[in-house]
Description:
Layout: H1 2-34, H2 49-84, H3 87-90
Amino acid sequence: MKKHLLWSVVGYTAVIGASLMTRHTAREAYRKTAGNPPPENPGRRDTRWHEALAWGMASGALVGVARVVGQRLGDEARRRGERSRPRRALKHLDD
């Protein structure tokens, strides 16, 4: 059970890291493209509809892709980690 928990933590860490990096990159790309920072709260009355929708679609799509990529990379790392070590070395983690 411990081995599964360890690799779950690795996988979730990869997903969170990928999401945070992508969110930061998306903000910078929006700032450079639009010339102003993305809306902090797209629901505010002073945010124009096209800005709110553009930011929502772009950031949602990018973060969604990053989560999938992070999950896949985390799962692949788990599979490689389990294959590369002999079962005897992992026996203490199965408790």
